[in-house]
Amino acid sequence: MILELIGGVLLTAAAGLLVEQLVYYFSARLGRSTTSVAMIIAPIITSSPELAIFIIALFQDKADVAWGSIVAQPFMASTVIYPVAVATALLSWALGRRTTRIPHVHRYVAMPLLAFTLPLIPVLLLHPQSYRLYGRLYGLLMVAAYFVYAWRALGRKAEAHEKTRLYLGNPALQLAASVVALYFGGEWLVSGIVDMGSAFGLDETALAVLLVPVATVLPESITGLIFIARGRDDEGIGVIVGEKALYGTFYPGLAMALGIYTLEPAAAAALVIAVAISLLESIAIWRGYFGLTAPLGLAGYVWYAFHV
Predict the structure, then answer these.
(1) Average pLDDT for residues 223-244, to the nearest whole number?
(2) What is the Cα 159 distance to its own chain's centre?
């Protein structure tokens, strides 16, 4: 139990360091800015375990499993990861690793939040998935919107920086190692939390609602937290909110295009909270700050846990 938790934390932290290096490596090789790479390529790497589950479940005709592996991420990021990011910045500032208490970012970092929220607003209000052909067409439009967003985000050219030496020497090897570490790190974290609940007689349902999603989302966000701890706010926040763009456009759009998108009341409530907080956070980022919605996000998480 304890060993699983420790192993999960160490593996996810190691994966975050590997992905951090890959961001700098791909930035230099592609000639794109590190923030752009952090917003687009890093989320694809960190979400690869969920992507594998999504594809395998579709091939096995288990649409509920495929969609269930995707729907909770934007909600957990908005309500849990934002406060964790702010806490990471405060701790790093207290240790003298940062010069500011909260993350300061450039306006273009708000782009992923808008890419996440704008396509989902018609989904929440008009339910296009219920109109069959029109729903599938809208799903394809959402997928296309993600590629347009990615193309725009990767348009920023690289700033001058030194050539990055990879820990494992080979980019393919380091990429594979980071994905494996993310997968097993998340698995061990979840298993350790569940075992701890059983050992202390905690309610399994409460653990499933409150703790297990934290364990599954945190491994994806650890790369962003590492950037933030080192004062690289644009890259760190770019990783965190860039993942939301992926989960708010590409995955639901693909599910809608395939005719497997569902919006149950619990999922709808979670998405409403995520969309509302993301819109408010995009305004905060436009003013140069990140994390001003952290208290609201925590309140939304508590409300959801007790009322939904």
Answers:
(1) 87
(2) 25
Contact yes or no for 62/283 (Cβ under 8 A): no
Confidence grade of residue 50 (pLDDT, cut at 50, 70, 90): low
Give the C-alpha separation, 42 to 19, whole Å: 7
Structure tokens at 8: 């999960």
- Residues 99-158 have pLDDT tens digits of 888 888 888 888 888 888 999 899 888 888 788 888 899 999 999 999 998 888 887 776
Q: What is the DSSP string of 108-173?
A: GGGHHHHHHHHHHHHHHHH-GGGGTHHHHHHHHHHHHHHHHHHHHHTTSBPPP-PPPPPTTS-HHH
Q: Where are the domains of the chain?
A: 2-307
C-alpha gyration radius of the chain? 19
- Which amino acid does the sequence have at 50? E
Cα 240 from Cα 238, distance rounded (Å): 6
Place of tokens 């309610």: 203
Q: How far is CA 108 from the centre of its chain?
A: 18
Distance separating alpha carbons of residues 51 and 70, to the nearest angstrom:
9
67 compared with 20, residue with greater pLDDT: 20
Count of CB atoms situated within 10 Å of the CB of 133: 8
What is the assigned CATH class of domain 2-307? mainly alpha
